[in-house]
């Protein structure tokens, strides 16, 4: 059986000008990054504003196993299937972070015959967007520390600086560090730490900005720390927001690539869903909608994380109305929620599948809380038995929902034409009915409890002393009207990764609440979630190699 990289190398890629032409764009509308990837120019983005607006389909999932349930593969395969049925479709997804690529999950560009290509480029440096975000974030940090070092006219308290540096690497050693050692000429010592680049507020801002002017304004609104007297300090007070925006000028342009079936793909932005909003850029999705009949996008991890944030944050800031949700479920994930150990997920176990269905049920209930139409895509794996697949499909239909078994990994778009037909009929028959979960003007505690109780199923939310102090500061300085972006484990509906299935009567603990004023949300951090991941005992980097001719292997 061919691996993802071998499949990718069998595909005849079209020149990126041909992919652009499928969307009605000319070579003059794109900045070329070689033969097979490009960025769409601002002039082209302006030109297409009068185009009709396509239908938006969100792909989400049940609570996943550590390896994921093929959500990106389904999104890509569904877009390919729609194109096979004679409609113009584009898939809009995130760029992979190097942390997971070299960590536990390996590559993140889809799989099998439903990938975005060129696969090696997309999984590594692509068009340099992640490097631009990293550089912008750390330049901001350097400018801030430089201001404090020389005259500190704003009277910023070094002990109350809230801005962290970032790196697109899983590195637990950088979570908490001391900087500025070596004497007075080297700076001033203080505690600091690194987040991973997808957790940077700059990444969130890039993906939530509709244009360059908004990008600059959001950067200026970043809260960088507090004065000695406790007053907030914003980046625009230093006067460098233009310089940081200049570093991101090209990164804001959507990236154009293609799938294994030469379907256009917008691959842009990369915030994680467990520690950020978990969706590709608004500007990328809007561009796809102006160029296509149907746009398929995906939100990271389970519906409780990426999709909730997609609806409560991304759709509101982008003025987007999602037309339908495709919820990915797998037999292997249901077995895990039924109590089966990870190493045994390939063994037939209909009883465990049945037991694990309660997790699927909760996610279907959550979709309805946003007023959304939905269908379950049962993503087939080679180890699945006909009996196990039938159990899932029959259960979903008994609950009154639609279900379709797909195999986009093995068959490309042909592996799920029924799903594509059903989804198109679903979104064409009714107008969008989407609504948010909570009122942004509600008290912060109410917003947190609404998400924790309604989406996670929590009975109560507890706050540490630090989180309570954060709340007092948030209320005092008027940040309380911001929406929330909860940082939570992806391994459970709760904030405890060991609680599988559908936990009940549990407590969610908020450790702290960060203020991402530029991005426009608060970040309640729950449980033991870290904004800088660590590498596993055996990282995927063990499998990655490059040969003398430059050919890379091991990126799955």
Structure description:
The chain is an alpha/beta fold and 556 residues long. It folds into 3 domains: 4-128 and 251-429, 3-Layer(aba) Sandwich (Rossmann fold), CATH 3.40.50; 130-247, Domain 2, N(10)-formyltetrahydrofolate synthetase; 444-526, Roll (Formyltetrahydrofolate synthetase, domain 3), CATH 3.10.410. Helices cover 36% and strands 19% of the residues. Strand 1 and strand 2 form a beta hairpin. The model has no long low-confidence stretch (mean pLDDT 96).
Question: Can you lay out the helices and strands and say which pair or pack?
Answer:
Elements: H1 4-10, H2 16-22, E1 30-32, E2 38-40, H3 42-47, E3 55-61, H4 71-84, E4 89-93, H5 98-102, E5 110-111, E6 114-117, H6 119-123, H7 129-150, E7 156-161, E8 165-167, E9 177-179, E10 190-192, E11 194-196, H8 201-208, H9 212-220, E12 223-227, E13 232-234, H10 241-247, E14 255-259, E15 264-267, H11 282-291, E16 294-298, H12 303-318, E17 324-329, H13 331-337, H14 350-369, E18 374-379, H15 386-398, E19 402-406, H16 408-411, H17 417-429, H18 444-456, E20 460-463, H19 465-476, E21 507-516, E22 521-526, E23 545-546, E24 552-553
Parallel strand pairs: 3-16, 3-17, 4-15, 4-16, 8-11, 17-18, 18-19, 20-21
Antiparallel strand pairs: 1-2, 2-14, 5-6, 6-14, 7-12, 9-10, 12-13, 14-15, 21-22, 23-24
Distance between the termini: 13 Å
Largest sheet: 12 strands, mixed
Structural class by helix and strand composition: alpha/beta
CATH class of the largest domain: Alpha Beta
**How many helical elements?**
19
Number of domains: 3
Q: CATH topology of the largest domain, anyone?
A: Rossmann fold
Give the overall form.
Answer: globular
Query: Could you name the ranges where pLDDT drops below 50 across 5 or more consecutive residues?
Result: none
């Amino acid at each position: 059986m061919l691996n993802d990289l071998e499949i990718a190398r069998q595909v005849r890629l079209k020149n990126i000008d041909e992919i652009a032409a499928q969307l009605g764009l000319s070579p003059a509308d794109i900045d070329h990054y070689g033969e097979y990837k490009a960025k769409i120019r601002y002039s082209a983005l302006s030109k297409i504003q009068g185009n009709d607006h396509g239908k938006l389909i969100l792909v989400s999932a049940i609570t996943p196993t550590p390896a994921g349930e093929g959500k990106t593969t389904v999104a890509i395969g569904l877009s390919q299937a729609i194109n096979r049925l004679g409609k113009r479709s584009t898939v809009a997804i995130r760029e992979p972070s190097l942390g997971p690529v070299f960590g536990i999950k390996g590559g993140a560009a889809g799989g099998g015959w439903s990938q975005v290509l060129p696969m090696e480029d997309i999984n590594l440096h692509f068009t340099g967007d992640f490097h631009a975000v990293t550089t912008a974030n750390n330049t901001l940090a350097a400018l801030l520390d430089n201001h404090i070092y020389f005259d500190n006219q704003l009277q910023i308290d070094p002990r109350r600086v809230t801005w962290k540096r970032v790196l697109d690497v899983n590195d637990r050693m950088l979570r908490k560090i001391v900087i500025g050692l070596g004497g007075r000429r080297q700076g001033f010592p203080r505690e600091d730490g690194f987040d991973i680049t997808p957790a940077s507020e700059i990444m969130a801002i890039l993906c939530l900005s509709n244009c360059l002017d908004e990008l600059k304004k959001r950067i200026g609104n970043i809260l960088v720390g507090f004065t000695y007297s406790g007053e907030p300090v914003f980046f625009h007070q230093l006067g460098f927001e233009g310089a940081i925006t200049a570093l991101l000028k090209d990164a804001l342009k959507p990236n154009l690539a293609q799938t294994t079936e030469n379907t256009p793909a917008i691959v842009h932005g990369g915030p994680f869903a467990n520690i950020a909003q978990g969706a590709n850029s608004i500007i990328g999705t809007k561009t796809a909608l102006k160029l296509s009949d149907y746009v398929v996008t995906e939100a990271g991890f389970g519906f409780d994380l990426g999709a909730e944030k997609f609806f409560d944050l991304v759709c509101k800031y982008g003025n987007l109305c999602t037309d339908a949700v495709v919820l990915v479920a797998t037999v292997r994930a249901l077995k895990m929620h039924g109590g089966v150990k990870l190493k045994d997920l390939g063994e037939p176990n209909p009883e465990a599948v049945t037991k694990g269905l309660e997790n699927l049920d909760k996610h279907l209930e959550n979709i309805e809380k946003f007023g959304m139409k939905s269908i379950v895509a049962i993503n087939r794996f080679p180890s699945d038995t006909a009996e196990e697949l039938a159990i899932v499909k029959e259960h979903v239909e008994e609950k009154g929902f639609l279900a379709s078994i797909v195999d986009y990994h093995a068959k490309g778009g042909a592996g799920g034409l029924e799903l594509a037909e059903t989804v198109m009929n679903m979104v064409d028959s009714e107008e969008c009915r989407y609504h948010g979960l909570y009122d942004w003007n509600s008290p912060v505690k109410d917003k947190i409890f609404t998400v924790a109780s309604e989406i996670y199923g929590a009975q109560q939310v507890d706050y540490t002393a630090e989180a309570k102090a954060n709340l007092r500061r948030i209320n005092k300085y008027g940040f309380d009207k911001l929406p929330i972006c909860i940082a939570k484990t992806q391994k459970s509906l709760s904030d405890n990764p060991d609680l599988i299935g559908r936990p009940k009567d549990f407590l969610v603990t908020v450790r702290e609440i960060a203020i991402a004023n530029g991005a426009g949300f608060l970040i309640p951090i729950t449980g033991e979630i870290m904004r800088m991941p660590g590498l596993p005992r055996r990282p995927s980097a063990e499998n990655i190699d490059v040969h003398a001719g430059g050919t890379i292997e091991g990126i799955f």
